[in-house]
Amino acid sequence: MDFAFSAEQEQLRGFAREFLAERYDDVRLAALADSETGTDGDVWPRLAEMGWLDGDLTFLDQAVLFEETGRRPLPAPFFSTMALAAPVFDEKLRAETGAGGLRATLAWAEPGVPQGLLDTAGLSTREADGRITGQKVLVPDGHAVDLLVVTTPEGLYAVDAADATITPHTAIDGTRRLADVRFDGAPARRLADLSALTAIRERAQAAAALEAVGVAQRALDLLVEYARTRQQFGKPIGIYQAVSHKASDIYVRLQEARSLAYWAAWCVDTGDALAGRACLAAKAHATESAVLACEQAIQGHGGIGFTWEHVLHRYYKRAQWLQAFDGAPRTQRAELAAALLD
Amino acid sequence: MDFRDSPEEAEFRTELRSWLLANLPEGWADRAPEAGRGDFEFLRAWGGKLYDAGYVGLTWPAEFGGRGLSPVYQAIYLEELARLNAPNHPGVIGLNMAGPTIIAWGTDAQKQRLLKPLLSGEEIWCQGFSEPGSGSDLAAGRTSAVLDGDHWVVNGQKVWSSYAHKADWCILVVRTDPEAPKHAGLSYLVVDMHSPGVEVRPLVQITGDPEFNEIFFTDVRVPKESILGAPGDGWKVAMTTLLHERGTLGFALTAGLEGTVNRLIELVRQPGPDGRRPADDPVVRDAVAREWIEMQSLRFTNYRSLTALLETGVPGPEGSMVKLAWSEANQRLTAFAQSLIGLTGQISDDAWWNGYWQYQQLRSRGNTIEAGTSEILRNIIAERVLGLPKGR
């Protein structure tokens, strides 16, 4: 029994943390989030150089990167490409991605029908004769990718972004926006059966949980730093248990979330029989904990934590994005309950 | 990262499971849940059986009667007990607190005399730390020990001592130097509970069970050599005890919680007192899933903490964290179970599930108080883990 990342994985974590902290300090992150596209257009080739986009990374290697890109949000479609689209890539797409030439996402949700990743019953986007027609909504990073993986009752298809009509939304989380996408007979290439969505969902849930752990960690770090230094009544506010005990509670939630997220990552990596349950549990707990951590951090900061100027709301909004992704935590709990009780 | 058992671990698990099935009283696994802690003499005999089979002191060095195995085996042991709902050895204070402290601080003669009967369950231990005037503030204790010839003469009162009414020995923190600063005036004695002048009065808990006690010491003569460490080392020795208490606790607690979650699942799937099945209510389903997730999160936190322990040799802060989270989970879960049976849960004769949930719910209120109150644990996390300024 061994519950530690390997030395190589820890090294990868160290590099990632350093790279992200240096490239995206809080000021630059805010500027990018408020920019026209919400993305850092130059970073993608750098990610390829560093090996982050390699097809031969294991999921545990990627796990380290998902966590670190939560701790310092990466304004690029890394989650969308690696967690949502890449699981169904063929050799060619994998090679292109690894070389830094391809950013991708998954277009699954449609208006007016259930929008979970596995809710395929009501899909009306259709493929016929290698062409796709239909409408997708809530496509993560839809405006910032080269390729869309599209769900249809016939299976999963790759469509060039240039062949689709993409309408970006302004979004609460400036660095992970959502878009509507229309396909009017767009040329499409088959990638996988619909059943591949199960594997995509497990990865996406685990990745969301890992990212949420990074978000919660940064929120706690900010809270602790502030509680150590901010003085009121002549003392650092962290001396008051009304503040310090909240920080302790967040620490507990964070460690629980981290344990579940690592468990889920390991299950996905090894194809463990409990992967489905582990991913549901991790996603529900970690994303909820990240929201809570940010809310407590905002509270602990007082007025400054409530300003646009302070970085905390960027994390809060990412946490909310992750919590809402593929259904609120009660959705995952309902599915777990079915597994436990029925 | 790999959570699977190694071949040796898997073999140990299989052997233990078959041993338990062969040695537990017939029908044990299927028996109805019971309230309370059961028959002490049965538990003592059971402890002896576990000892004879080699399942006690798994992580202790072989020279002290243990098997010198890694803590992973202790974790497997606790998991397997919980899975079959089998009772643990009743000498938990001795095994988890007194024993490791004696190994760390005791003389050869003390180790020779004390450790074997502790492992076998022949001698039961209790803990004399808290006093009426000093609970969380351990170093404020006033029970005194004064040297008189070859003996310490002990006077004072201890409280909340589990098992004291069954115990043969007590690990006792006493003040030996009233002039020294608070922490420096303490010493750590090992006291024979059968000595003249030791009086134990059971305290009845809110469950109705007399699980813990007051201990009164009146001119109790304790041999001079029955001390762990030097006079004045009491605080340091006590910290060894508490480190071990929290270091090994997480697995035992979580294994217990897993059993309780499984019971909750069983409860909601059956028709309740009103004929309805709680599992048909979406609010109930959400709550059950939440508790299952919480339990898993603590399980894997233990594994992470175990990995850190194997790497560094020192238990991490997760011990405090798991105890804190477990106690609140157990309170939430048992109160939830009680709420599912409504007013029926208030009947104690002919009680639903033999009063299992009534007992568990009331007993759980002690969880956030015993072995470090939640307030103290939050302070420990804030100060020692997060580095926030000390309030005291």
Automatic annotation (TrEMBL), chain A:
This is Acyl-CoA dehydrogenase. PANTHER family: ACYL-COA DEHYDROGENASE (PTHR43884), ACYL-COA DEHYDROGENASE FADE28 (PTHR43884:SF20). Gene3D superfamilies: Acyl-CoA dehydrogenase/oxidase, N-terminal domain (1.10.540.10), Butyryl-CoA Dehydrogenase, subunit A, domain 3 (1.20.140.10). The keyword Flavoprotein applies. Its cofactor is FAD. One of its GO terms (molecular function) is flavin adenine dinucleotide binding. Keywords: FAD, Flavoprotein, Oxidoreductase. SUPFAM superfamilies: Acyl-CoA dehydrogenase C-terminal domain-like, Acyl-CoA dehydrogenase NM domain-like. It comes from Actinomadura craniellae. It comes from the Bacteria. Residues 206-340 form the Acyl-CoA dehydrogenase/oxidase C-terminal domain. Pfam families: Acyl-CoA_dh_1 (PF00441). Belongs to the acyl-CoA dehydrogenase family.
UniProtKB/TrEMBL annotation, chain B:
Residues 6-122 form the Acyl-CoA dehydrogenase/oxidase N-terminal domain. Keywords: FAD, Flavoprotein, Oxidoreductase. Pfam families: Acyl-CoA_dh_1, Acyl-CoA_dh_M, Acyl-CoA_dh_N. Its cofactor is FAD. Gene3D superfamilies: Acyl-CoA dehydrogenase/oxidase, N-terminal domain, Butyryl-CoA Dehydrogenase, subunit A, domain 2, Butyryl-CoA Dehydrogenase, subunit A, domain 3. It comes from the Bacteria. Residues 126-220 form the Acyl-CoA oxidase/dehydrogenase middle domain. Residues 232-386 form the Acyl-CoA dehydrogenase/oxidase C-terminal domain. GO terms for cellular component: plasma membrane. GO terms for molecular function: flavin adenine dinucleotide binding; oxidoreductase activity, acting on the CH-CH group of donors. Belongs to the acyl-CoA dehydrogenase family. This is Acyl-CoA dehydrogenase. It comes from Actinomadura craniellae. The lineage of its organism: Bacteria, Bacillati, Actinomycetota, Actinomycetes, Streptosporangiales.
